[in-house]
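> call design_seq(struct)
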């Protein structure tokens, strides 16, 4: 008669309820698909009410992205429109200005430029050495006024962006560029002044050094 095999006490012990299962269920990976903007816009109130929290977050994220794209496109369009309007306005002003208007405008701009440069000429320790830099920039209604301001011949048909003007000729435009200080006088020390013309912005800038 065969002997019966006795089970050990460990084999008869109850399985703990918190024990890990012997076989793990395979995880099912789901691919999250963001809703399209058209799907969101076509959703009814009842459709939106039935959405889960994660679905609502997805809808909001899609709307935020669409809004950002629209805001960027609007900003670019406004900049382009502003540029077109500026060019149109400048062209209309140029056409409406007579020779006397151009001359008067250039004279007024020259006076303002001289005053603004002299305002910057304050005593600084660097005035004793290499000199202190001054800068000036302004908008111009037309190329004709710009050429009249810097006394550039209108016969020149070539567009320019920079011109070198000797200091003496520049001061004939602005007046003497000097400023009195307690024990002397400051003056512009640059031998040449170079206007920089930006036709797209209808503006120019000049700069130089001043010192003792």
């Amino acid at each position: 008669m065969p002997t019966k095999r006795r089970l050990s006490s460990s084999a008869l012990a109850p399985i703990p309820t918190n024990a890990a299962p012997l076989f793990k269920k395979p995880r099912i990976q789901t691919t999250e698909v963001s809703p399209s903007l058209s799907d969101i816009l076509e959703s009814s109130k009842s459709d939106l009410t039935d959405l889960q929290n994660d679905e609502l977050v997805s809808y909001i994220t899609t709307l935020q992205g669409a809004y950002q794209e629209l805001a960027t496109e609007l900003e670019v369009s406004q900049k382009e429109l502003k540029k077109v309007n500026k060019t149109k306005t400048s062209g209309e002003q140029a056409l409406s200005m007579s020779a006397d208007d151009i001359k008067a405008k250039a004279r007024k701009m020259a006076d303002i430029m001289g005053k603004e440069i002299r305002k910057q000429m304050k005593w600084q320790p660097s005035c004793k050495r290499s000199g202190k830099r001054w800068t000036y920039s302004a908008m111009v209604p037309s190329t004709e006024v710009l050429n009249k301001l810097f006394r550039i011949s209108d016969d020149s048909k070539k567009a320019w962006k920079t011109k070198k003007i000797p200091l003496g000729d520049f001061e004939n435009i602005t007046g003497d560029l000097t400023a009195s200080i307690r024990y002397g006088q400051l003056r512009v020390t640059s031998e040449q002044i170079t206007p920089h013309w930006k036709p797209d912005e209808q503006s120019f800038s000049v700069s130089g050094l001043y010192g003792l």
